[in-house]
Write a structure and sequence with these properties.
The protein has helices spanning 3-13, 22-35, 54-63, 72-80, 97-106, 115-124, 162-172, 190-204, 232-250, 262-265, 298-302, 389-393; strands spanning 17-21, 42-47, 66-69, 88-90, 109-112, 130-135, 157-158, 176-180, 212-214, 255-258, 269-280, 285-289, 308-310, 318-324, 332-340, 347-350, 371-376, 379-384. By secondary structure, the chain is of the alpha/beta class. It folds into 2 domains: 36-262, TIM Barrel, CATH 3.20.20.10; 269-393, Lyase, Ornithine Decarboxylase, Chain A, domain 1, CATH 2.40.37.10. It starts with a helix and ends in a 9-residue tail after the last helix. It catalyses: meso-2,6-diaminopimelate + H(+) = L-lysine + CO2.
Length: 402
Amino acid sequence: MDTNLLLNIAQQHGCPVYVYDGNKIESQFQRLQDAFKGVKKLKINYAAKALTNISVLKLLKKKGSGLDTVSIQEVLLGLEAGFAPEDIMFTPNGVSLEEIEEAVKLGVHINIDNLSILEQFGTKHPNIPVCIRINPHVMAGGNSNISVGHIDSKFGISVHQAPHILRIIENTKMKVNGIHMHTGSDILDIEVFLYASEILFETAKQFKNLEFIDFGSGFKVPYKEGDLETDVEELGEKLTVRFNQFCKEYGKNLTLVFEPGKFLVSQAGFFLAKVNVVKQTTSTVFAGIDSGFNHLIRPMFYNSYHHITNISNYGGKERFYSVVGYICETDTFASNRKIAEISEGDILCFHNAGAYCFSMTSNYNSRFKPAEVLVYNDKIHLIRKHETIKDLLHNQVMVDLD
């Protein structure tokens, strides 16, 4: 995104602020569609947990996306954004049967990932079709916290427990119309993904009335210049051939489903923060900004990398800085990072801030959450206001302690 535009947004809406490029989100969606154009039936369900702002949801709906949700609240947001219930998949983990019942009443698709709930649901609702989440026991993903298909994962029903699944289906006469897997995020090795897909194909043969197979997502995006990313075009070419072959063997054209989150919105996001202080110590130069891990937790939580540019001195002479926040504990965004020379009052831009950034914000230290801005077709839209003290007090109940 243009540096002058970002500086204009920072001046107009203040810092800290999240900025999203709506056209980049659209182009990523189109890229994935194009990669699988050889599939007769393709469905892309945006993984809402990556970024749930309702304006972003509406933008993706406009593009033709469905929605993948993991909580009843995300389902409600999806409905509020205008998604039809049949275009929403509910894929929770470890929730009660009561929450799943709520989703049933709302008419969305249900994806079940454990034997206990599967049996209870099938006994109570044998005529409501469900999808089953399979754990293929394939380790994929760039970090153990975001790799969810391995043998020790809490997600999915083990592929080795297929006989148990089939017994439940036989006993309850329940309907299964889809199977699903998600191995994890930041997948680089396409062959590992294809290997997991073969496990899913083999499992699918045991279910006679499928309508779709959901391959999850986890495509890696580049975080800095020269960084590696998932070659979705190569994956599309190889998986399309195999999927079409499977459909022929199965005797039916199934729908191929993906549920990308980070792939669609990560590169579209920018987080702008103002430098409060430049602090020289005996060994380090700190750039302290007007934000902290309450606004962008990923570097502290996942040790994730976010490229940082000084858009107030773009192209200036570089020096080494440790960029830190104002939270009252260790709060580091980057250590000894080369950044164009920083002065107090400069605006720093954190790149790849579209996925799992605002959605993981908090009010820690009683700090306000930042605003969100969407840039779409050269127009700037404020899509969330900066919080105020009224927002912090909104649900608190004042009691008389006299």
